[in-house]
Design a protein that fits this description.
By secondary structure, this protein is an all-alpha fold. It has a domain of 241 residues. The protein has 23 helices and no strands.
C-alpha cells in the first residue's frame, strides 16, 4: 500500500461507528431493515477512501470482487429456497414433522434437536445442509409443540455449528489449520478442549429450558389435530424420508453442496408428482414462489407456507450490500489499521488469545464472511504466535472458536443471513439462544488467560505463559 493511501485509525473507525450507529437506530428505534444503513455506511467508507487517495474505479472494483466471492453462497440460498418449496409440496417436510411429533417428547425436544443437528453436521461437515434438511423439520415440530421458535432455531444452530467445527469434512475445519500452519487432525484434537465444556453447558441449558417450555400450555389434542391435518393434506409415508437421507449421504461422500442440494430439490419435485399427484405447473410454482398452505388451520398454514427462490430475495440483497461494505473497508486497508492497533495491545498470551478471538468477531461483522474472518485473522496473527513460542494449533483453534461459530449470530453475515432465511427466524431473535456459539469463544478466552491447554512450540521458554 502506497504512503498516500495510508488511512489513519480515526478515519478507519468512522465507517464502523457509522455502521453500528445506523443499524441501532434503524433496527431498534425505527423498526426498519438493515439494508439501507449498510449501504449508507458503505458510502461513508467510500468517501473516506476517496479522500485518502483512492479512485472510484478502484473502489468499485473492490466492491464487485467482494460481491463475486459471495456468489456460491447465493446460489446455495436459491437452491435451498427451491428445495424447501418442493419438499413441502411433496410431503417430505410434513412427513418429517409427522414422525417427529410421534417420537419426540416436548420436554427433551431442545436437547434432541441440538444433539441430532450435531450428529448430522459432524457427518456432513456442513451446518448449512444440516439446517436446510433436518433443521426445517425441527422448526416445524418445535412450533407444533409450542416451543418458542428463536429457542428452537438456537438449538439447531448450536448443534449444526458444533458438527461443522469438528468435522474433518468441513471447509472451515480444513481452512483454519491451513492458514495457521497446523495439521488437520491435531487441530481437531486441540479443539476438543474448548468444544467439550461448551457443548456440555449448552446441552444442560437446553435440558433445563426443555422442562420449562416443553411442559406448559401444550394440549395433546392440538398435536393430534396437527397430525390429522398433515395426514389428510399429504400422503405420509417413510418413502418421503429418502430425499433428506440422500442429501445427507451425498454430502458425507463429499459431493459438493450445490449439486447435492439441487439433487434434493429435484427429488422433491419428482416425489411431489409421483406420491402426491401434483402437476408440473405446481412444482415449478412451488420451486420459485414457495408453497402456500390453505388448510384453514392457522398453525398448519403458517408452518407450511414457506420456501421458493423468491423468498431468498431479502437475504440475497442483504448479503450483497454487506459484502460491498466489507470490500471497501478490507481492501482499502481500513480493517488492517484497526486490527494492527488491537495487536499492539496484546502483550501477554492471554491478551493475544483474546485479541485473536475479538479480531475474528470484528472481521465477521465488517466483512460478512466467516472465510475472510479465518483467513485475515490467521494471516495477521500467525507470526505473532510463533514469536511468542505458541504452537500454531492454538491459533487455528481460536480461528474456529470465534471465526466459525460467531458467524451465524451476525444478521448480515453470509451464515446469519442463510440461517435466518432457512429457519424463518431473524438472527437477532435466535442469537441469545444459540448458546454454543458464544460460550465457545468465552471458554477459549479463559483458557488463554489461565494457560490451560495452551501448547508451546518445542524448546520454547516459559515466556509464553499466560498472565
Amino acid at each position: 500500500m502506497s504512503e498516500r493511501k495510508q488511512i489513519s485509525l480515526i478515519l478507519a473507525l468512522i465507517p464502523l461507528v457509522t455502521l453500528v450507529g445506523c443499524l441501532f437506530v434503524s433496527l431498534n428505534i425505527l423498526d426498519a431493515g438493515p439494508h439501507i444503513p449498510i449501504v449508507f455506511s458503505t458510502a461513508v467508507a467510500a468517501i473516506i477512501a476517496i479522500c485518502s487517495g483512492y479512485k472510484w474505479g478502484e473502489i468499485e472494483k473492490y466492491i464487485l470482487e467482494t460481491m463475486a466471492s459471495s456468489l456460491q453462497a447465493i446460489t446455495i440460498l436459491l437452491i435451498v429456497g427451491a428445495l424447501i418449496g418442493t419438499w413441502i409440496l411433496s410431503g417430505v417436510v410434513p412427513t418429517m414433522i409427522y414422525y417427529g411429533l410421534m417420537i419426540i417428547s416436548p420436554k427433551v425436544f431442545l436437547l434432541i434437536s441440538c444433539v441430532l443437528c450435531s450428529i448430522v453436521s459432524l457427518a456432513t461437515g456442513s451446518s448449512w445442509s444440516t439446517a436446510g434438511t433436518v433443521g426445517i423439520a425441527l422448526m416445524g415440530i418445535g412450533r407444533t409443540m409450542g416451543i418458542p421458535l428463536p429457542l428452537v432455531a438456537g438449538s439447531i444452530i448450536s448443534g449444526a455449528y458444533f458438527g461443522d467445527k469438528m468435522s474433518p469434512l468441513s471447509d472451515t475445519t480444513n481452512m483454519a489449520p491451513a492458514v495457521a500452519g497446523s495439521e488437520l487432525f491435531e487441530h481437531i484434537k486441540h479443539m476438543v478442549y474448548t468444544v467439550t465444556p461448551s457443548l456440555l453447558i449448552t446441552l444442560v441449558i437446553y435440558t433445563i429450558l426443555g422442562f420449562r417450555y416443553g411442559g406448559n400450555n401444550i394440549d395433546p389434542t392440538d398435536i393430534n389435530e396437527m397430525m390429522t391435518l398433515l395426514a389428510d393434506k399429504f400422503a405420509i409415508t417413510p418413502i418421503l424420508l429418502i430425499p433428506p437421507i440422500l442429501v445427507i449421504v451425498m454430502v458425507v461422500i463429499q459431493i459438493p453442496s450445490i449439486p447435492g442440494l439441487f439433487a434434493g430439490a429435484f427429488l422433491g419435485a419428482v416425489f411431489a408428482m409421483i406420491i402426491q399427484g401434483t402437476g408440473l405447473a405446481d412444482v415449478i410454482n412451488a420451486s420459485f414462489s414457495g408453497f402456500n398452505s390453505q388448510t384453514g388451520n392457522e398453525m398448519v398454514d403458517s408452518l407450511l407456507s414457506s420456501g421458493g427462490m423468491s423468498s431468498m430475495a431479502w437475504t440475497i440483497t442483504l448479503i450483497f450490500v454487506a459484502m460491498a461494505f466489507g470490500g471497501v473497508v478490507q481492501k482499502t486497508g481500513m480493517l488492517d489499521v484497526i486490527i494492527d492497533k488491537a495487536l499492539a495491545a496484546a502483550k501477554s498470551t492471554g491478551s493475544l488469545i483474546l485479541a485473536t478471538l475479538l479480531t475474528c468477531i470484528a472481521v465477521n461483522i465488517l466483512t460478512a464472511s466467516q472465510y475472510l474472518s479465518i483467513v485475515i485473522t490467521g494471516n495477521m496473527f500467525r507470526e505473532r504466535y510463533i514469536e511468542r513460542g505458541l504452537h500454531p494449533k492454538n491459533l487455528s483453534r481460536c480461528l474456529e472458536d470465534a471465526g466459525t461459530v460467531t458467524s451465524p449470530l451476525i444478521p448480515w453475515n453470509n451464515c446469519g443471513a442463510f440461517m435466518a432465511s432457512t429457519l424463518g427466524v431473524s438472527a437477532f431473535a435466535y442469537a441469545p439462544f444459540a448458546f454454543f456459539c458464544y460460550i465457545t469463544p468465552i471458554v477459549s478466552a479463559i483458557y488463554g488467560y489461565t494457560g490451560f491447554s495452551i501448547e508451546k512450540l518445542p524448546g520454547k521458554s516459559s515466556q509464553t505463559q499466560a498472565s
